[in-house]
Amino acid sequence: MNLEKFFQKNPKVALAYSGGVDSSYLLYAGIKYGATIKPYYMKSEFQPEFELEDAYKFTKQLGVDLKVIKANILNDEKITSNPVNRCYYCKIAIFKTIKYHANIDGFNTIIDGTNASDDITDRPGIKALEELFVISPLREYGFTKDMIRQLSKEANLFTWDKPSYACLATRIPVGRTITANLLQRIEKSENALFDLGFTDFRVRVSCDMAKIQLPKEQMAEALNFKEDILTLLKPYFDSVVIDLETR
């Protein structure tokens, strides 16, 4: 089955929309194949503001109304305690909320942008999707990340080359309590690096140190910007280092 047949079989769906490459292509495909598809974006402390801005930009270009659901994910101690399977609890909370709103709006089928390149054997979040009967068409029908990028490029979607971006909580080591303050410091640090022109990086936390992980091709540029990086990130972390084990 291809996506056209999927949307023929499922003509009315709610999409858990992140603003990233995969869910953006899935939204485009749903519209292309005539489905009634409504995107739902969960805005919590785990998502940086630029992701929401991209989500608004993309849905506006497609002429689709984006439903933004604001949630304080930090009210859940099972999530803030940051266990190994934190992603499971987070996905359960997010998708239960999306399902609740989607059902009120008349949508019974929920889909998401998990793709065939995602490692489903090492992702607690996948278990949550399965338990809540969320369908992942891109994964089920063999769409890899590279395929989705190419198809998005051919469709002139601005998201085609957007770097993959995991939620801010992934920057915090397992077992360390997740707080709004720590998430804000990480987001502001990453925004500063974006403003300097860096892409596809992470600012990970170790004690009160910011550990910057960059693609190897950006390493030399980071050293050239050493003083700027220190000036911009030191207000948020006691020390700043560049991880030589590149992304």
Question: How would you describe this structure to a colleague?
Answer:
This protein is an alpha/beta fold. The chain has two domains: 3-161, 3-Layer(aba) Sandwich (Rossmann fold); 179-242, Alpha-Beta Plaits. The protein is 44% helix and 13% strand. A hairpin with a 2-residue loop joins strand 5 and strand 6. Helix 5 (86-104) packs parallel to helix 6. The longest helix has 19 residues, at 86-104. The chain is globular, with a radius of gyration of 19 Å.
Average predicted confidence as pLDDT:
93
Low-confidence runs of at least 5 consecutive residues: none
| CATH classification class of the largest domain | Alpha Beta
The Rg value, from CA coordinates, equals 19 Å
Q: How many helices does DSSP assign?
A: 11
Which word captures the global form? globular
**Strand residue content:** 5-15%
CATH homologous superfamily caption of the largest domain: HUPs
**Which strands sit side by side, in order, in the main sheet?**
3-2-1-4
From the coordinates shown, what is the CATH architecture of the largest domain?
Answer: 3-Layer(aba) Sandwich
